[in-house]
Amino acid sequence: MRVRVVPLERLSPVMGEAWVDTGRRPFVRDGVAFVPVADGYPCDEEIHERRKYRGRGYQMVGDIALIHGRAPTAEETEEIRAWARPSAILHIRGYDGVMRRPEVTVLCGASHDVVHHEAGIIYRLDPAKVMFSMGNREEKMRLEAAVRASGREERCADMFAGIGYFTLPAGRAGARVHAMEINPASHAYLKENIRENSLTGRVRAECGDCRDLLAGVYDRVLMGHFDAAHFLPDALAHVRSGSVLHVHSIGDISGAIADACRECGMEAEISVRNVKKYAPGRWHMVQDVVIQ
User: How confident is the model at residue 50 (pLDDT cuts 50, 70, 90)?
Assistant: First the structure.
């Protein structure tokens, strides 16, 4: 396979260039990316095609491999280490409480701050300290497109900002974002990521309970937490006709959302979208709620 060698921090920006062979996937080794080159373009080197990986599933955040679900066997861990050559492998058993702190076992190496690139956005974090939502890439891009398509500078509230999963795409699309996060560790990374993505003048980050921090009226409210339904009365006190709420949940809760709106004297148009499979027979969903 013909490849160009690209610094890891340049991987996301180059993926849209004409020379990239989009039929093959790049891979990362020792802090650099090997990006397949389309026919007719010069390459840096030729490498042997890699055999297909058939081991235990994992996700890469920066150069750290994350395993979710049941605890892996020693053999599964070694397969991932040999294949991906990560600096560390972590088993994430879940995320605890309102702070969404990872319940983590370090299987090899040592966890540390990494820089993760996704759709042109930089996320800095330590995955042993804070949660990162790996499966929401399309939803982040859909949100960014919706904010940009509005054609105006929206005032946006992100009630559960984390390290900036939805805050950063919304800010990049032109919104003025009020980002709220209750976990001090996540809030610290959120502030770093605002700076990393040159959004300091567009995003205001606060640490605390979003119910105490909401202020004024918002054009768009991001509710990226599975318990978002419990916070609907607080969110609805800060919207008006034409405002949009994006309410995340496990399963369809559009009926409960409609009831909450009516209890606040509002009507809403609600559409439901699957984000990703959460468990057998259960879906992570988002309800787009347009206040009438």
Answer: low
Distance between CA atoms of 135 and 31, rounded to whole angstroms?
A: 23
Domain boundaries, the chain: 1-50, 54-112, 134-291
Query: Per-residue pLDDT tens for 225-243?
Result: 999 999 999 999 999 999 9
Q: Which H, E and C letters describe 217-285, residue by residue?
A: CCCEEEECCCCHHHHHHHHHCCCCCCCEEEEEEECCCHHHHHHHHHHCCCCEEEEEEEEEEEECCEEEE
* Cβ 89 vs Cβ 111: under 8 Å: no
pLDDT at residue 70 greater than cutoff 70: yes
Average pLDDT over residues 177-202: 97
The CATH architecture of the domain made up of 54-112 is 2-Layer Sandwich (3.30)
Note whether 290 and 258 are within 8 A (CB): no
CA–CA distance, 278 with 283 (Å, rounded to integer) = 5
Give pTM, 2 decimals. Answer: 0.82
Q: Residue 180 in contact with residue 243, Cβ under 8 Å?
A: no
Count Cβ atoms below 10 Å from residue 31 Cβ, excluding itself.
11
Place of tokens 């982040």: 140
Mean pLDDT of all residues in 7-16: 88
% the chain with pLDDT above 90: 82
CA dist 197 → 190, 246, 278 (Å): 11, 23, 30
Region 134-291: CATH code: 3.40.50.150
Q: What is the mean pLDDT of the chain?
A: 94
Helix (H, G, I), strand (E, B) or coil at 82: helix
